[in-house]
Amino acid sequence: MQLLVFNLTYGKIYAYYPEVRRKAGTLLPLEISILETAIDLRRRGEEEFHGFAIAKEIAEREEARTLTAHGTLYKALERMQQAGLLESSWEDPAAAAAEGRPRRRLYHITGLGEQALAVSDALRRSPAIQPHGGLAPS
Amino acid sequence: MTGRTPELAEGFTRRWASLYTRGLPADLRTARRDELDSDLWEHRQWSTTEGRRPGQIAIEITERLVAGMAGDLLWRFEHRGARPHTTRPLGGGDMTRLLKNYGMVALTVALGIFTIAVSIGVITFGDGKGLQGAILLVGGVLMLGGLFAVRSGLPGGRPAVALGVIAPGLLGIWTIVLPIVSLVILIWLYAPSQLRREPVRPA
Predict the structure, then answer these.
(1) Is residue A25 within 8 Å of residue A10, measured between CB atoms?
(2) What's the farthest any 2 CA atoms get from each other in chain B?
(3) Model pLDDT for residues A23-77, shown as the tens digit of each residue
(4) Which residue from B156, B162, B160 is spatially nearest to B184, judged by alpha carbons?
(5) B68 chain-A contacts, CB cut-off 8 A
(6) Number of C-alpha atoms within 13 angstroms, CB side, residue B39?
(7) ipTM score of the complex?
(8) Contact A52 B39 (CB under 8 A)
């Protein structure tokens, strides 16, 4: 199923895990937060982010009292990577060792991730548009 | 709260991670643990820079640990099919060990089924031997359930099989044969064999 405006396969947005039960073409709130924050960080010149950085940024953006839980955050990041919304790479251990800290896994948002967020935004703004490409029954 | 409490909370988080990543392929396990290590380190640095007290930091880490436990378990469940493996080709010695390993699994399954069948017979027809039958039934269930847990990479599988195997052995049914079989399985369970925990697959 294709949404012509974004030329995006809906299946790629949501159907990456059989256990995930959700409406076709939708992103989970945490996934939206991660993608929005990633774009925000990129605007500020930070192309890549690590797990804790995104948790901290999300908490600041949403004025949340607590940071996203480890299990929730890393499960979401892995799921989004498998869906092609994010890509990641491990930084050079020598660089981390030089700074006296553990190596970071650095993520960045992909083109598909940006498209998925745009589709999700469009769906949120216009509830009449259905994920399967049709209009909502009146 | 003392200055050491963040370390305790971090220790709990690492222990929990080592528990739910147990039995996974090394790359997956290492990736999750390294990512968590980095997160804990960054969290501590940031909190310290923000001027938070050690107690506060510990609470935050514990909150993140507890709130994410369900996610961790789901993540582990999603990777239930992943098995630790190496990619070196099988050698002759490996084949012998693999055959021995599967032979022992088959023997344990057979003993488990046999024990359950006997227990049902003892409970149904054994006059006044209800307790003996119940012990055998629990033993059989522990053997099969424990084997399933070992194969699924869940914790507690081996002790469960060992406990289950002891039941028919201790009760000494069918003379000396079952105690010997039980002893053989116990030796296999606790013998130092990496192959059993990390089966070798062809490249």
Answers:
(1) yes
(2) 74
(3) 656 799 999 999 999 999 999 999 999 999 999 999 999 999 899 999 999 999 9
(4) B162
(5) 69-73, 75
(6) 27
(7) 0.78
(8) yes
